Amino acid sequence: MGGAEQINSFLVDVFGRVNKIEERAMADGLGSSISITEIHIIEKIGAMEPIRMSEVAKSIGVTLATLTVACDKLEAKELVRRKRDKNDRRVVNVTLTDKGRAAYEYHKAFHSRMVASVMDTLTPEQAAVLAQSLEKLQDFFLSEESGSGGNGNG
């Protein structure tokens, strides 16, 4: 297998495994199932709460209607709480419940363990090369998200 094919295979495998392991870790930690999308919504809310629903939707790249449906499910699971802004009733703010905060902290700890497992084995030089490589990958993703990258045959 050539270098490019090997990298592609590795990236596809890693992304799939991270998602599966995140879902399983969250289910084990919370005692109930939670989707990757829900985990990432909780992550955005926890990092910036209280936060407007519109800001969460924008930050994760979904419509407000899509986020509303997801938050309906998260409220039913008692992970988030929504409240209209006192000064502008059109604005809906979202925060984590105690259970949601526990999920956020559990998810954060998972990511810390994952990163530490890699960083603990690298020299400073290797860590710098990895960081530069991941920045290039992130630049590619941002370009694809904005629609300005590639030819769409993907």
Explain this structure.
This protein has six helices and three strands; from the N terminus they run H-H-E-H-H-E-E-H-H. With about 150 residues, it is mainly alpha-helical. Strands 1-3-2 form a three-stranded antiparallel sheet. It starts with a helix and ends in an 8-residue tail after the last helix.
What are the SSEs and their pairings?
Elements: H1 3-30, H2 36-48, E1 51-52, H3 53-60, H4 64-76, E2 80-84, E3 92-96, H5 98-119, H6 124-146
Antiparallel strand pairs: 1-3, 2-3
Helix pairs in contact: 1-5, 2-5, 3-4
Quick description:
This protein is mainly alpha-helical. Helix 1 runs antiparallel to helix 5. The two termini are 20 Å apart.
Give the N-terminus to C-terminus distance in angstroms: 20 Å
Biggest sheet layout: 3 strands, antiparallel
**What percent of residues adopt helix (DSSP H or I)?**
55-70%
Task: List the total number of helices.
Answer: 6
Descriptive tags:
154 residues, mainly alpha, 3-stranded antiparallel β-sheet, globular
